[in-house]
């Protein structure tokens, strides 16, 4: 994103050190959230009345997919402290944005339908044959509905599968007539 980073410094002398500091802060944001499209950082010292002293304002506009994150931090006498505060706020907003995006794109594990092939009630485990004919181990703790003790060989079950230490395992096992969406 280096070519889409813009740095504007107003009303103060330009400083390579200050610009390098800004680039470093933007780099840290990119390492945290790598989908930043653009970033414009403005550091300025607006004209104030004489009794207020020198105070810096930092504005950060971050372009992200489908949105823009805007941070304004005003009134600090040290530009590096103003930048730190502004980038901390930007990081928090990026975290919130990333959580919202993650919730929208949450991947649901596909469910399968099979039948209880063998069950060992006393030992607390069994095997389910899936639609592909492969057997999957399941433990009593992975039965959601009804209880493990009520399962019988031949019961139709819905389940998700995960790779376990010794092969495919069925998780979230539930009994009943199930129809998967086509």
What does this structure look like?
Keywords: Coiled coil. Residues 111-175 form the CSD domain. This is Ribosomal subunit interface protein. GO terms for molecular function: nucleic acid binding. By secondary structure, the protein is α+β, with helices and mostly antiparallel strands. The protein has two helices and ten strands. A six-stranded mixed sheet has the order 7-6-5-9-10-8, with no helix packed on it. Strands 1-2-3-4 form a four-stranded mixed sheet, with helices on one face. The longest helix is centred in the middle third of the chain and has 26 residues, at 79-104. The model has no long low-confidence stretch (mean pLDDT 85).
Strand content bin: 35-45%
Shape: rod-shaped
Overall average residue pLDDT: 85
Poorly predicted runs of 5 or more residues: none
Helices and strands, with pairings:
Elements: E1 5-10, H1 16-32, E2 38-44, E3 56-64, E4 67-76, H2 79-104, E5 112-120, E6 125-129, E7 135-139, E8 143-145, E9 156-164, E10 167-175
Parallel strand pairs: 1-2, 8-10
Antiparallel strand pairs: 2-3, 3-4, 5-6, 5-9, 6-7, 9-10
Give a summary of the structure in a few sentences:
The protein is α+β, with helices and mostly antiparallel strands and 182 residues long. It has two helices and ten strands. Helix 1 runs parallel beside helix 2.
Based on the model shown, name its key terms:
four-stranded mixed β-sheet, 10 strands, 182 residues, alpha+beta
């Amino acid at each position: 994103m280096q070519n889409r980073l813009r740095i504007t410094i107003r009303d103060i002398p330009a400083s390579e050190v200050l610009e390098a500091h800004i680039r470093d802060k933007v780099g840290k944001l990119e390492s945290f959230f790598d989908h930043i499209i653009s970033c414009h950082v403005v550091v300025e010292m607006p004209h104030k009345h004489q009794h207020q002293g020198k105070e810096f304002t930092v504005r950060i506009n971050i372009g992200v997919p489908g949105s823009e994150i805007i941070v304004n931090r005003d009134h600090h006498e040290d530009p590096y402290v103003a930048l730190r505060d502004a980038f901390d706020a930007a990081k928090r907003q990026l975290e919130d944005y990333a959580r919202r995006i993650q919730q929208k794109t949450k991947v649901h594990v596909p469910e399968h339908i099979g039948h209880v092939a063998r069950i060992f009630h006393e030992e607390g485990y069994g095997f389910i044959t899936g639609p592909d004919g492969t057997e999957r181990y399941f433990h009593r703790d992975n039965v959601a509905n009804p209880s493990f003790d009520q399962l019988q060989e031949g019961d139709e079950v819905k389940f998700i599968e995960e790779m376990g230490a010794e092969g495919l395992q069925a998780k979230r096992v539930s009994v009943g007539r199930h129809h998967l969406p086509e």
